[in-house]
Amino acid sequence: MVTAEAGRSHIVVVLYGSRGDIQPGVCLALELLERGHRVSAAAPPNLVEFARTLGVGEVYPIGTDTHTAWSSDEAADSRSRSPIARICYALKTVRDGFAAFDRSLTGLFVGDDAPLRDADLIVAAPLCQDRCLAVAEKLRIPLVVLRFGPMSENGVLGAVPGLTDSWSPEWKRRSWRLADRVTWLATGWNEASFRRRLGVPRVFGPLPKRLSALGVRQIQAYDPAIVPGVAEEWGAVKPVVGFFDLAPEHRAALGEWGGDRAELVSWLDTGEPPVFVSFGSMPIDDPDHLIALFSGAATELGCRVLFTLGERRGVDPLNPGVYYAGAMDHSGILPRCRAAVHHGGAGTTAAGLRAGLPTMICSVTADQPFWASRIAALGVGYGTRLRGLTGAIVRDGLGVVLSPEAAAAARRLSDQLVAAEKAVAAAAATVEEVLVAAS
């Protein structure tokens, strides 16, 4: 039971995955800190310092290094072999990662010496929902879930982008129920094992159905304009609040300019706005090949390119219309660009759309194909897969995002998006409502 006053509660935000999975949770943690709560966070070891640098002082490592797991030599070798080898490596990595995650989570919350045993509420990111539900039951405290895409039952969008687009609302709902059942059959044993470890009752059936039955609030951290109709269908139980982003002062703390800031600003000032090309934390086996594809197509189309890809830095000595940088602050650089090309992570997609940029998404995994399908459906870009990318596909995609029609549509959509500070504030208010109801 929650015993603390809602105005000074101990809220724990549990995060797992890549930086794109972590940053929205950090945004919410910072807002809750501003509101006077005690906030702890759990994050992969490689992203603990990221959260601390932004101002979340109480951060605990959980699970394994999520970057090394997918960018190691072993991972690269598996991707260069047969599909079976890739699947086997992925299964082993996921299994080992969640075994470490389970050990860490138990140590943080359960037992007399557990540092987070006095939590009043848990906020769980998408990859942590089933485990955090079990922990919340163990501690008899409420749970709030964060979602970065509309990945649960609804009658607006089906479970398989493209295939289910023309289905009726009822059949779209059925597609989600089928997808949830398949996921449960494939992974339910893993959740059952963790629940036995904690000593909480056994459960039956898919997690989304159980969350709904329990009335767990599921904050949808993406914009209602991207998925019109979903917010109205779900209502207050699954509030669609808007995309999160860091406040400028928190962004400044990261100091992300990807290299020589003065040189980059000078390059931006001396020509037309470039196309921004980045694939975030996605493992890229041959960045030089991707660079050649995009720089070649850009040269044909007469536009400049800013890459945050690979190890090169500075102006290309053979092509002054190409600049190479490291990871950088999207909110600072994207408004100075003409279009964006990326992997389709929810955070990168949001940053590009908020900057009013037509977008080409070359998806890799998870929810990325969904975002690729949405930007195409909304008329603000072009969606494809990264695997099998060719020069012809790149030229077609850039042709779409560089068109006046896509640029105008992207500007219109940008004007409709919820301001990031309002989205985060709405999410924090939801958390506080749950605290008050449970106290």
From TrEMBL:
The keyword Transferase applies. SUPFAM superfamilies: UDP-Glycosyltransferase/glycogen phosphorylase. Signal peptide: none annotated. Residues 310-420 form the Erythromycin biosynthesis protein CIII-like C-terminal domain. Pfam families: EryCIII-like_C, Glyco_transf_28. One of its GO terms (biological process) is carbohydrate metabolic process. Keywords: Transferase. InterPro entries: EryCIII-like_C, Glycosyltransferase_28, GlycoTrans_28_N, UDP_glucos_trans. Gene3D superfamilies: Glycogen Phosphorylase B. One of its GO terms (molecular function) is hexosyltransferase activity. Residues 11-150 form the Glycosyltransferase family 28 N-terminal domain. This is Putative glycosyltransferase. It comes from Gordonia amarae NBRC 15530.
